[in-house]
């Protein structure tokens, strides 16, 4: 029996007048097979995973037609808990897919819901943790785990009931390269156990050699299915034209390595002074005996008009460094110069801005225009004119009266950047601006960065995204290599 | 399967029982409400010194309006408000607050839920009244203040002091305080509820969340 | 429960009482409010309540409560009239009040910090608490720390925008400050509610029927002993023996 057997499946969210999210999709997944669903954002791949694991239409409301058999059960009609022992699911955001505050509780959670006795639960938890290499992460608070560790535990939790199918919905959205490699190993192990794996993903490179089949979605339909060898043989341009991320990360890696060797412009012969320069900087948090983390940063400089990538795996202090550079945290020692003068955290906070990974925390107003006008007088004609210019510059005029929270992720990012431009910030830091984005949106972010640089801002991007760094950064600072 | 099954639609089907997803929503909002209660405890202690929780319900009422209103709008069915009050009562009890507070945090939210239901969780007046009633659910933690007076009088008596004089002083203060703190809840809940409804219109309705 | 949730639990659970025994101690502490127990009884009860804390390795916490109790009792024993400062009655009364509430807070702190989320849930299920209460409780334990983290992010975002965040801003524009903080918090909360629901539903939380627990809780001799030991002084006091 196939793990998934979908025939002519169509699905509409909410009311019938919305455009269908899926239109007559047919797809099968054989036992032990790994099938990748790919395509641009909004193409229907996530919706398909929801139909398969029973979340749509029971939780995500809407109308479904066609047949979906998941492990032999009619996924649209049986209660979702009938599917629980057969289908494990892992989602994109490692921060919100944990139901428990403790890792062992999270692993035990599906077993508890199935009504197993304590001995059986603990046996299964130990077994799943052992097989998926998370034994050392047991009995920990989830708030202390890195994104990669959380995703590994989530994978173990997905198989603790011994399912026949595991559904992964963009599981690597927020992970660094090492963590993604670890995810790959786990998928290999699942396949080896005869578990079928269905993955919806933008980033495809990590699945090379694991995936058996690729289904390319567009506007709710499967436009084409490829066997793995055929898909991997596609030319990079063809892949890009389908809106997909690269299949071969090597050229990007080489480009990033090249960019990491580029010297800072401020030291160049043109004598352009850097906007920001650090001297013997040590960043970290906690002081004295309670010091939790500290890190010496090699001297760096950022000039107006350039895009600098800040890379290096999780835990190398990227976030702490940019928090220090924007004045949110004080340096432990050393100093930071702004335009050649030593700057206090307060000055840095006035000169710099950070677009957070979760941009929802940064939007406060009830319309895009109001958002940009916070802190300015609404009667000030000068400020209004400036606001109009910023809106136009960021392609936002059409959205000026919308509520910021009703916008898409990329639009929200642009609004946050707009607010920074209104405050006259010189340094704009972006924290993982392309996590979970498809090629089209990634390039949109890249073009936005370029425009900011052309307007004379210094742009610093914290990113794991090698494609973004290779395509758009003028220079890369690799904190990991710099650690020495 | 040879026969073509009819489409499955969940657009119109909403049961009146709280589903698991509803309970999770209640939990998330209850956590936010609990934070508001903690903030209120802190502020109240700051302003009133040792009388810690005397203005706790009033301050909590002042700041929790948006949480209450959004929960009512998101859920729109009976039970959510009751469960939120109940669970908060449970947490207050487990963290060492007075056991009787549990009774208040069951009775008042239940009444509030019934009032909100009368307006189908949409009526602005009924929601405002509902919020005022709900806010009295936190009066439990201030009850021990009255036991405290008794205890002090008793301890003075035990030492052979003239307790009548003390009784006079404190009885006066306590009666006054009682009226003030109850009236404060009313005023603050009206203000807080109005503020919550304003935010609902300004933000959540506009953003399509409620 | 927050601290317990972020630290290894199994070891600690072994040395702390059964959650139901903790609940009983909490009730006893509350009962003390109704009976005006004598000083000796009160001190004995405090000592008995602090003992399990010591056993659980919470020496610091126990010491703090002991010192606090001693200080409050000393203040409560002041004789304002003899000192010639009648205003001190307020201080004295407050101290007596605080020392009354102390048993509640001590047992509460003990219950809160030594019970893992898992044991708490297990105890609730064993006491046949309806799922409608259990589920929100689990979510609170899970989500509460996240809110504090969210709040910090929001404050930072405000600081970067030059929106005043200090105490002064709260006094000058209370409604606006509250709006700036509460709106992102609530927006995030609705997202989290959806994501948690999705995760929990695929893991079978909505299943009808018995839900079990990985933690086994059992009333042991030590639990019965602690309950009996704490009941005795209160019962004797109430009966007028002490």
UniProtKB/TrEMBL annotation, chain A:
GO molecular function, one term: ATP binding
Domain ABC transporter: 4-244, 276-484
Name of a matching Pfam family: ABC_tran
Keyword Membrane set for record: yes
Compartments where located: Cell membrane
Protein's membrane topology: Peripheral membrane protein
This protein's UniProt keywords: ATP-binding, Cell membrane, Membrane, Nucleotide-binding, Repeat, Translocase, Transport
Database matches in PROSITE patterns: ABC_TRANSPORTER_1, ABC_TRANSPORTER_2
Keyword ATP-binding: yes
Protein family: Belongs to the ABC transporter superfamily.
Task performed by this protein: Probably part of an ABC transporter complex. Responsible for energy coupling to the transport system.
Listed name of the protein: Energy-coupling factor ABC transporter ATP-binding protein
Organism expressing this protein natively: Bifidobacterium santillanense
TrEMBL record, chain B:
Record's keyword terms, sorted: Membrane, Transmembrane, Transmembrane helix
The keyword Transmembrane appears for this protein: yes
Transmembrane regions listed in the UniProt entry: 23-47, 54-75, 81-108, 128-148, 168-196
Pfam families: Trep_Strep
Transmembrane among keywords: yes
Coiled-coil spans in chain: none
Database matches in NCBIfam families: Trep_Strep
Name this protein carries in UniProt: MptD family putative ECF transporter S component
Biological source species: Bifidobacterium santillanense
TrEMBL record, chain C:
Residue stretches spanning the membrane: 21-49, 61-78, 90-112, 132-151
Main location, first listed in the record: membrane
One Pfam family linked to the record: CbiQ
Domain of life of the native organism: Bacteria
Cellular localisation: Membrane
Keywords from the UniProt entry: Cell membrane, Membrane, Transmembrane, Transmembrane helix
Membrane-protein topology: Multi-pass membrane protein
Protein name from the UniProt record: Energy-coupling factor transporter transmembrane protein EcfT
Organism whose genome encodes this protein: Bifidobacterium santillanense
């Amino acid at each position: 029996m196939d793990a998934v057997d979908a025939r002519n499946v169509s699905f509409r969210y909410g009311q019938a007048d919305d455009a269908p999210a899926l239109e007559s999709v047919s797809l099968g997944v054989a036992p032990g097979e790994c099938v990748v669903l790919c395509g641009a954002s909004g193409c229907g791949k996530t919706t398909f995973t929801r139909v398969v694991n029973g979340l749509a239409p029971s939780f995500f409301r809407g109308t479904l037609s066609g047949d979906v058999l998941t492990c032999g059960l009619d996924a649209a009609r049986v209660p979702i808990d009938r599917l629980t022992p057969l289908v494990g699911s892992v989602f994109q955001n490692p921060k919100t897919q944990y139901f428990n505050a403790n890792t062992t509780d999270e692993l035990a959670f599906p077993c508890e819901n199935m009504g197993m006795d304590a001995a059986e639960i603990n046996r299964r938890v130990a077994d799943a943790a052992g097989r998926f290499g998370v034994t050392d992460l047991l009995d920990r608070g989830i708030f202390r785990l890195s994104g990669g560790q959380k995703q590994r535990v989530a994978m173990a939790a997905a198989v603790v009931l011994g399912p026949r199918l595991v559904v992964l919905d963009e599981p690597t959205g927020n992970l660094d390269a090492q963590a993604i490699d670890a995810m790959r190993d786990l998928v290999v192990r699942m396949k080896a156990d005869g578990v079928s794996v269905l993955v919806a993903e933008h980033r495809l490179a990590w699945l090379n050699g694991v995936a058996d089949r690729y289904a390319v979605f567009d506007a709710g339909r499967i436009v084409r299915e490829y066997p793995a060898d055929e898909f991997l043989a596609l030319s990079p341009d063809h892949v890009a034209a389908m809106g997909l991320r690269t299949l071969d990360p090597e050229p990007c890696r080489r480009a990033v390595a090249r960019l990491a060797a580029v010297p800072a412009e401020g030291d160049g012969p043109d004598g352009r002074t850097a906007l920001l320069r650090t001297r013997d900087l040590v960043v970290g948090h906690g002081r004295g005996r309670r010091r939790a983390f500290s890190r010496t940063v090699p001297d760096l400089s950022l000039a107006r008009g350039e895009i600098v990538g800040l890379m290096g795996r999780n835990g190398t202090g990227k976030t702490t460094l940019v928090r220090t550079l924007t004045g949110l945290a004080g340096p432990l020692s050393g100093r930071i110069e702004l335009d050649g003068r030593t700057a206090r955290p307060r000055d840095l906070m006035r000169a710099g801005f950070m677009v957070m990974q979760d941009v929802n925390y940064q939007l406060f107003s009830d319309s895009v225009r109001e958002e940009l006008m916070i802190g300015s007088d609404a009667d000030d004609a000068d400020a209004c004119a400036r606001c109009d210019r910023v809106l136009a510059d960021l392609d936002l005029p059409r959205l000026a009266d919308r509520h910021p929270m009703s916008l898409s992720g990329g639009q929200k990012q642009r609004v946050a950047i707009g607010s920074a431009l209104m405050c006259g910030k010189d340094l704009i830091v972006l924290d993982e601006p392309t996590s979970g984005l498809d090629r089209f949106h990634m390039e949109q972010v890249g073009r936005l960065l370029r425009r900011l640089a052309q307007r004379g801002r210094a742009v610093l991007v914290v990113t794991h995204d090698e494609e973004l760094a290779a395509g758009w950064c003028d220079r890369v600072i690799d904190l990991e290599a710099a650690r020495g | 399967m040879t026969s073509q099954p009819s489409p499955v639609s969940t657009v119109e089907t909403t049961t009146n029982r709280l589903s698991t997803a509803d309970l999770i929503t209640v939990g998330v909002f209850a956590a936010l409400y609990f934070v508001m209660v903690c903030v209120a405890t802190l502020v109240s202690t700051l302003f009133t010194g040792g009388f810690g929780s005397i203005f706790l319900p009033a301050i909590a009422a002042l700041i929790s309006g948006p949480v209450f209103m959004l929960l009512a709008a998101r859920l729109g069915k009976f039970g959510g408000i009751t469960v939120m009050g109940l669970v908060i009562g449970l947490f207050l009890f487990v963290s060492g607050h007075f056991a009787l507070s549990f009774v208040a945090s069951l009775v008042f939210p239940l009444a509030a839920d019934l009032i909100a239901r009368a307006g189908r969780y949409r009526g602005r007046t009924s929601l405002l009244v509902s919020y005022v009633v709900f806010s009295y659910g936190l009066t439990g933690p201030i009850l021990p203040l009255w036991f405290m007076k008794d205890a002090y009088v008793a301890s003075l008596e035990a030492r052979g002091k003239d307790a009548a004089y003390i009784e006079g002083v404190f009885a006066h203060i306590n009666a006054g305080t009682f009226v003030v703190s109850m009236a404060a809840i009313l005023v603050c809940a009206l203000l807080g509820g109005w503020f919550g409804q304003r935010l609902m219109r300004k933000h959540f309705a506009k953003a399509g969340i409620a | 429960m927050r601290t317990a949730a972020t630290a290894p639990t199994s070891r600690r659970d072994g040395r702390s009482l059964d959650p139901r025994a903790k609940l009983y101690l909490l009730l006893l502490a509350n009962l003390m409010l109704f009976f005006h127990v004598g000083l000796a009884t009160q001190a004995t009860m405090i000592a008995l309540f602090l003992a399990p804390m010591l056993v659980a390795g919470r020496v610091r916490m126990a010491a703090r409560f002991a010192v606090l109790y001693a200080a409050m009792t000393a203040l409560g024993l002041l004789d304002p009239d003899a000192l010639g400062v009648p205003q001190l009655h307020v201080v004295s009364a407050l101290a007596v009040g605080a020392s009354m509430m102390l048993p509640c807070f001590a047992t509460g702190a003990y219950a809160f910090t030594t019970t893992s989320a898992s044991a708490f849930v297990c105890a609730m299920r064993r006491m046949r608490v309806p799922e409608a209460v259990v589920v929100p409780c689990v979510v609170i334990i899970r989500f509460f720390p996240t809110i504090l983290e969210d709040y910090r992010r929001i404050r930072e975002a405000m600081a970067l925008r030059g929106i005043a965040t200090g105490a002064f801003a709260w006094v000058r524009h209370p409604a606006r400050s509250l709006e700036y903080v509460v709106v992102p918090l609530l927006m995030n909360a609705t997202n989290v509610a959806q994501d948690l629901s999705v995760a929990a539903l695929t893991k079978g939380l909505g299943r009808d029927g018995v839900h079990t627990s990985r933690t086994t809780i059992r009333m042991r001799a030590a639990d019965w002993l602690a309950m009996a030991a704490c009941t005795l002084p209160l019962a004797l006091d109430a009966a007028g023996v002490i």
